[in-house]
Design a protein that fits this description.
Blueprint: E1 23-27, H1 32-43, E2 47-52, H2 55-67, E3 71-76, H3 82-96, E4 101-104, H4 120-148, E5 151-156, H5 170-190, E6 195-202, H6 208-211, H7 218-223, H8 233-244, E7 255-258
Helix pairs in contact: 1-2, 1-8, 3-4, 4-5
Length: about 260
């Protein structure tokens, strides 16, 4: 004999991956995972604010979205600079009324070198882009979301923040560990106020940053993964979209690894 699921009065309806009428803010949206996420949100009906330091690349992302019939605008922003982040969030709320979803994706990876050989300026650059920017973005996004009744934030971390696979990239790995910690802390602080915060941790994904990382044999790297291939930016974007959707309403403070099985080895 079968049984039916009990009814839950007042349970919110779950709509998978649909963002009609939603406003999504994506930093680092000019290329790679940021561009893929901006396109994914737009495909699902969101209006997208594409932010980044390189306006030409961000404009390309905006152009692709608009050509497909979507709605997107560009805001040139250095997310490591507080007044620029404040201006970005203010621009978003003035243009669209609120911020429903934020994907804090901007990132920077140092040139490979042993820790003692890394200049202090490199430390400052890595942590400014990877950690300070996440703090600043959440600071201003959370304030805007509280004012409008809630929202969703997804931060881009890395499997390197969980297990460092790369000799010579200690600063990058440490910065991504900090992103994971910031994500958990902020999630606990604001969950009861209707702001869900999570992170994604990509593994070996083919992006401009990966191609500049100094890996001399991509085939060897791909063969070392259980799937025997590198990841694609759109595969990470789908995890971001899921975390931002109503399908993940009960997911809070987690880091979703999109790594082709790297961490399972």
């Amino acid at each position: 004999m079968g049984s039916e699921w009990p009814r839950s009065e007042g349970m919110p309806s779950v709509t998978l991956d649909r963002f009609d009428g939603k406003i999504a803010l994506v930093t680092g949206g000019g290329s790679g995972i940021g561009r893929a996420a901006a396109l994914a949100f737009a495909r699902q009906g969101a209006a997208v604010v594409v932010a980044g330091r390189r306006p030409a690349l961000c404009e390309e992302t905006v152009g692709v979205i608009r050509a497909a019939g979507g709605k997107a605008v560009l805001k040139q922003t250095d997310v490591s600079v507080a007044p620029e982040v404040a201006a970005l969030v203010r621009f978003t709320t003035e243009t669209f009324g609120r911020v429903d979803i934020a994907f804090n994706n901007a990132g920077h990876q140092e040139r490979r070198a042993l820790l003692a050989d890394q200049p202090e300026a490199v430390f400052e650059a890595v942590f400014a882009t990877n950690v300070r920017s996440v703090y600043l973005c959440m600071k201003y996004e959370i304030a805007a979301m509280l004012a409008s009744g809630g929202g969703v934030i997804v931060n881009n971390a890395s499997v390197s923040g969980i297990r460092n696979p790369n000799s010579g990239l200690a600063l990058y790995s440490a910065s991504k560990s900090a992103v994971i910690s910031l994500t958990k802390s902020a999630a606990m602080e604001y969950a009861a106020r209707n702001i869900r915060i999570n992170a994604v941790a990509p593994g070996r994904v083919v992006t401009d940053m990966m191609l500049r990382s100094g890996i001399d044999d991509m085939t060897r790297v791909a063969d070392s993964l259980p799937l025997k291939r590198m990841g694609r930016p759109d595969e990470v974007a789908q995890a971001v979209v899921w975390l931002a959707s109503d399908a993940a309403l009960f997911v809070v403070g987690h880091t979703v690894c999109v790594d082709g099985g790297f961490l399972a080895q």
